[in-house]
């Protein structure tokens, strides 16, 4: 099969298309023909290996000393089950599925193996493979931090970075939980973020969202660029501040996947896709994501010569 591998830490030039052996499913595994994946902030962090000094050695031991131990990156995917292990009971060949591979990675290849007990589910029928593939990283991350902030119905929430992968889902999910949500983004995305359901949209290039005289129950920094120290005036006395900065990958539960599937099927949330790239142009997709200006997700389309 074709796969894009990261040969060493550093620039996008270290991503190479190679031929490698197709994985063989073990007794509890699914073999998935990948139709779509994404390039997320998690992929960028691993490829560039940007780590706090105190975590440098532990992270190298986890990820790989001189290069990623799992060279095929890609933390989410969608595709079709083509084979199952002898003890698999929840899935069968032909099932359309989507999955969050997380630290297992593997999405940037034509095939991937996952345990049936992993974060994998039948793809919502009303979504494309591309839409499904671009849901779980942002959706589960947003869920984790909103729950960490103990979101409640009727609260007022500010999402900083409301046009990014995590921010778009945080905005939609906060509204689902019954909150009133304001979003912060750049000038180009104002109307678009408003269309996702924001009560107010604040242009960070023209106005400081923390100095407007409004106070929030929750401030969620979805891009890691709004320090807590600058949010004191905008937080209510018992308000919560949460940020993705320095958090790595959020802790996720199978119930999160089930909730996101249900909300997609009922049309209460949707994935937002900025650009599409073929697998062969993965390096270019990394360059674009690394600029930090994408709207929603950047999708990788994976082709098959079958």
UniProtKB/TrEMBL annotation:
InterPro entries the record matches = ADH-like_C, ADH-like_N, ER, GroES-like_sf, NAD(P)-bd_dom_sf, YIM1/Zinc_Alcohol_DH_Fams
Q: Where is the Enoyl reductase (ER) domain?
A: 10-300
A single Gene Ontology molecular function, please? oxidoreductase activity
Q: SMART domains attached here?
A: PKS_ER
Entries under SUPFAM superfamilies matching the protein: GroES-like, NAD(P)-binding Rossmann-fold domains
Q: Which domain of life is it from?
A: Bacteria
Q: What is the protein name stated in its UniProt record?
A: NAD(P)-dependent alcohol dehydrogenase
Q: Where does this protein come from, organism-wise?
A: Paenibacillus sonchi
> Which classification does the entry list for the species?
Bacteria, Bacillati, Bacillota, Bacilli, Bacillales
């Amino acid at each position: 099969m074709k796969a894009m591998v990261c040969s060493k830490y550093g620039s996008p030039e270290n991503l190479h298309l190679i031929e490698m052996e197709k994985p063989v499913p073990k007794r509890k595994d699914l073999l998935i023909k990948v139709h779509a994946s994404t390039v997320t902030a998690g992929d960028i962090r691993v490829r560039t290996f940007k780590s706090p000094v105190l975590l440098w050695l532990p992270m190298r031991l986890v990820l790989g000393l001189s290069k990623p131990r799992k060279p095929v990156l890609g933390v989410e995917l969608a595709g079709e089950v083509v084979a199952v292990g002898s003890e698999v009971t929840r899935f069968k060949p032909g099932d359309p599925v989507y999955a969050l591979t997380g630290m297992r990675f593997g999405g940037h290849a034509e095939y991937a193996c996952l345990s049936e007990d992993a974060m994998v589910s039948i793809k919502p029928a009303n979504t494309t493979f591309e839409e499904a593939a671009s849901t779980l990283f942002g959706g589960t991350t947003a869920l984790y931090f909103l729950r960490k902030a103990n979101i409640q119905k009727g609260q007022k929430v500010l999402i900083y970075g409301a046009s990014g992968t995590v921010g778009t889902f945080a905005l939609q999910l906060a509204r689902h939980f019954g909150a009133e949500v304001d979003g912060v983004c750049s000038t180009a995305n104002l109307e678009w973020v408003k269309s996702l359901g924001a009560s107010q949209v604040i242009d960070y290039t023209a106005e400081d969202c923390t100095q407007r005289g409004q106070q929030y129950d929750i401030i969620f920094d979805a891009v890691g660029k709004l320090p807590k120290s600058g949010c004191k005036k905008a937080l209510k006395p018992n308000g919560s501040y949460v940020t993705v900065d320095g958090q790595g990958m959020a802790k996720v539960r199978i119930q999160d996947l089930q909730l996101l599937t249900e909300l997609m099927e009922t049309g209460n949330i949707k994935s937002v896709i900025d650009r599409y790239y073929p697998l062969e142009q993965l390096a270019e997709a990394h360059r674009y994501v690394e600029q930090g200006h994408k709207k929603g997700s950047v999708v990788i389309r994976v082709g098959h010569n079958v």
